[in-house]
Write a structure and sequence with these properties.
Oligomer: single chain
Low-confidence stretches: 1-26
Helix content: 25-40%
CATH architecture: Distorted Sandwich
CATH topology: Glucose Permease (Domain IIA)
Number of helices: 3
Structural class: alpha+beta
CATH superfamily: Glucose Permease (Domain IIA)
Shape: globular
Number of strands: 9
Mean pLDDT: 88
Length: about 250
């Protein structure tokens, strides 16, 4: 009788443990699926094979669902002070231009894909005199860090030298907390995938020279960092984050 009692307890514990273990992958699988859908949509927008109206409609549906799944998986909003500078070992002084004037939003439309105008981003330059992608001072690659907590929704890690794709190896991170999309481009190596949950300061890539223009000798080695804020209709609009970057030195 006692043996049967302990057997019943063990079976129940195993069942509960199995249920808990299966629940997390289920939530993760749903988040992965949504992020992969965004990745596919982003690639179509980039390559100009989907119309703006259709793309906007899909974006308006996908991002709120990704945000809901992110919170349902147990993630929480990060503290406002957790904003991290996106290049390890550097700070806002490495940003090109003067006090953020290199960020030019006019002429930019996310839905124009690879043919967009403007330059709604900050180029953050590393010390790389021979353009080998290695930091002159440390002799090592420079780590790209996530500026915020969030979820990776799109990546490219197979850029080829003959490609006209301008971003090269890139990462898009969506932060449900800020309702913004964060874009990190020209990386040599991407270390995350759609569905990866990242924290502010997490290593997500290494700085490189990928992309049609960034690959050329005339371009100093840099990270192309862009932020798009979603307006009330869900339309992604570029924002100048210079002040946030200046405060985000860790």
């Amino acid at each position: 009788m006692m043996r049967q009692f302990f057997y019943t307890i063990v079976v129940c514990v195993l069942c509960l443990s199995s249920g808990a273990a299966n629940a997390a992958p289920g939530r993760g699988a749903a988040l992965d699926s949504l992020c992969n859908s965004f990745n596919n949509l982003n690639s179509k927008i980039r390559d100009g094979v989907v119309g703006k109206k259709e793309a906007l409609g899909q974006l308006q549906l996908l991002l709120p669902r990704i945000g809901n799944a992110y919170y349902q998986s147990g993630e929480k909003d990060f503290p406002g002070t957790a904003y991290a500078f996106p290049l390890a070992g550097y700070n806002y002084r490495a940003i090109g231009g003067v006090k953020g004037n290199g960020c030019i939003a006019s002429g930019y439309d996310y839905f124009a894909g690879n043919k967009h105008g403007g330059h709604p981003a900050h180029d953050i330059f590393i010390k790389d005199s021979n353009q080998d992608g290695i930091d002159d001072a440390t002799g090592k690659p420079v780590n790209v860090l996530s500026a915020t907590d969030g979820i990776v929704v799109a990546t490219e890690n197979n850029w080829q030298e003959n490609s006209l794709q301008r971003g090269g190896n890139y990462i898009w991170v969506y932060s449900p907390h800020t309702n913004r999309l964060y874009y990190y481009a020209h990386n040599s190596k991407v270390l995350v995938r759609p569905g990866s949950v990242v924290k502010a300061g997490s290593k997500i890539a290494e700085v490189g020279r990928t992309g049609a223009n960034a690959f050329k000798k005339r371009s100093p080695t840099h990270l192309h960092f862009m932020v798009l804020a979603l307006d009330a209709t869900g339309y992604p609009r570029p924002v100048n984050t210079y002040d946030e970057l200046a405060k985000g030195t860790r």
